[in-house]
Amino acid sequence: MIIYLRLSWAYLKIGLFGFGGGYAMLALIESEIVDPGWITEQMFTDIVAISQMTPGPIGINSATYIGYVVPGQYSAAFASPLWGLLGSIICTLTVMLPSFLLVRYTSHLISRHRESTVIKGAFMGLRLVVVGLIASAALLLMNSANFGEAPREVIASISICVVAFVLVYFVKWHPILIILLAGLAGYFIF
User: Fold this and answer.
1) Please, what sign has the CA dihedral across residues 139, 143, 148, 150?
2) 73-120 pLDDT, tens digit each
3) How far, in Å, are 13, 29, 41, 138, 140 from residue 143 at the CA level?
4) Are the C-beta atoms of residues 23 and 58 closer than 8 Å to each other?
5) pLDDT tens across 30-65, in order?
6) Largest pairwise CA distance in the chain
């Protein structure tokens, strides 16, 4: 049962300090979940990819999946799907709790003092931190699990990444089409 307390503590910290949404949380999720050895970096990369493709916020989707997988990884006694379901529920609720309470108890204060220079300055600082955290997440995902290790794999991966960026940002193709095309390209190249 100690794994559930450890997961709760980890996701309470992620929920409390994870400003800027799922991508900004990725570095914190990695340090809290991968560094203790609960999952591998390859599993973390796969979880990020799956969380991006499923509906809902990446932070909550990853919490649900990690809560399901980690108890079974921690001990064979928790390998049952019911223990995984319990872990999913605990992690999902724990990661949402700080945001829920923060919004619940500060929204009226912020709306009353919206024109305050203190509030405006605080939000400007938070916006800049979120941009930095999202850039950190991009760098975090630039690893051998995503780009491969052989020079051919790295060049192919970077090419797919650059082409996808150009098609979405400049040509304005729909992201779902880009995901499908990247999946096909990955299938044929790798």
Assistant:
1) positive
2) 888 888 899 999 999 999 999 999 998 998 888 888 888 888 889 888
3) 25, 16, 9, 10, 7
4) yes
5) 899 999 999 998 899 888 888 877 888 888 998 999
6) 57
Q: Which of 67, 77, 74 is nearest to 14 (CA)?
A: 67
Report the sign of the C-alpha dihedral through residues 22, 27, 30, 32, in that order: negative
Distance CA(22)–CA(19), nearest Å, equals 8
Give the predicted TM-score (pTM) of the model: 0.70
Q: Where are the alpha helices (DSSP H) in the chain?
A: 2-17, 22-29, 41-53, 58-74, 81-112, 117-140, 144-147, 151-169, 175-189
Which two three-digit tokens encode residue 158? 């970077």
